[in-house]
């Protein structure tokens, strides 16, 4: 039986939700050159991939956090995934805004997510971990008991691993950068010799020496 990490990797590659282009790097908003483009919103437009992803997210939440009482999405990409997972598991769902509203009740946490509630955060991807940790901080400050986080994809960057570990956040991802790089080579999306370059980027995104091969 195919491992879930490989199945999701193939899914993401097939719809270019994760797209490798080591010879023509993308430029991030920060100016960093990157061999990978990631947009997990695309999973929502493919029935097959969406089914694989949402079922895997739901199964992971249920298996790893059986005491969960609600799921919480990250704004904005995690919201739809949390809604579907909540539906599959018959759980309440909410989400955390990037910032509090400046009108009405000025909520930052949307939905009936109350103090003491045991929740799992649903994230589309983890890169440096900064935005994910901000969501955790908002929830914890509101007294919510964050059991952990489940994401579709993680870059496996050491910076995020260290930050999440320091914040005592348990995380699980359906697939990761290393697995997708291997599958991309197997499926001929990239050359096998490109894997070393991709991992060099992953290990130190600010060092652009990988571009030269």
Q: Could you provide a short overview of the structure?
A:
Helix content is 39%, strand content 22%.
Textual characterization of the structure:
There is one protein chain. With 213 residues, this protein is of the alpha/beta class. Helix content is 39%, strand content 22%. It contains seven helices and ten strands. The protein has helices spanning 4-14, 47-64, 77-89, 130-141, 158-166, 177-186, 194-203; strands spanning 18-20, 26-27, 33-34, 36-38, 70-74, 93-96, 109-110, 118-126, 145-154, 171-176. Strands 7-6-5-8-9-10 form a six-stranded mixed beta sheet, with helices on both faces. β9, α5 and β10 (171-176) form a beta-alpha-beta unit. α1 packs antiparallel against α2 and α6 (177-186) packs antiparallel against α7 (194-203). The longest helix is centred in the N-terminal third of the chain and has 18 residues, at 47-64. It is globular and about 50 Å long. 37% of the residues are buried. The mean pLDDT is 93.
Q: Helicity range of the residues?
A: 25-40%
Number of strands: 10
Number of helices: 7
What string, H for helix and E for strand, traces the elements in order? HEEEEHEHEEEHEHEHH
The profile of the biggest β sheet is: 6 strands, mixed
Give, in spatial order, the strands making up the sheet with the most strands.
7-6-5-8-9-10
- Secondary structure class reads alpha/beta
Mean pLDDT: 93
Shape assignment: globular
- The fraction of residues assigned to DSSP E strands is 15-25%
Low-pLDDT regions: none
Please state the CA-atom Rg, rounded to the nearest Å: 17 Å
What separation lies between the terminal Cα atoms? 35 Å
């Amino acid at each position: 039986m195919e491992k879930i990490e490989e199945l999701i990797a193939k899914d993401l590659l097939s719809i270019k939700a994760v797209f490798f282009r080591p010879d023509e790097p993308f430029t991030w908003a920060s100016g960093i050159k990157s061999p990978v483009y990631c947009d997990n919103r695309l999973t929502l437009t493919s029935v097959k991939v969406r089914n694989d992803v949402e079922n895997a997210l739901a199964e992971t939440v249920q298996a790893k956090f059986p005491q969960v009482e609600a799921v919480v999405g990250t704004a904005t990409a995690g919201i739809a995934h949390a809604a579907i997972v909540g539906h599959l598991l018959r759980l309440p769902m909410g989400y955390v805004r990037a910032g509090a509203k400046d009108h009405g009740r000025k909520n930052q946490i949307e939905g009936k997510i109350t103090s003491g509630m045991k929740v799992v955060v649903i994230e589309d991807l983890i890169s440096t971990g900064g935005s994910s940790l901000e969501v955790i901080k908002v929830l914890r400050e509101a007294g919510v008991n964050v059991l952990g986080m489940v994401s579709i994809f993680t870059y496996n960057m050491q910076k995020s691993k260290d930050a999440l570990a320091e914040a005592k956040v348990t995380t699980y991802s359906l697939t990761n950068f290393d697995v997708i790089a291997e599958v991309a080579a197997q499926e001929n999306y990239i050359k096998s010799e490109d894997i070393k370059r991709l991992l060099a980027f992953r290990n130190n995104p600010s060092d652009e020496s990988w571009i030269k091969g």
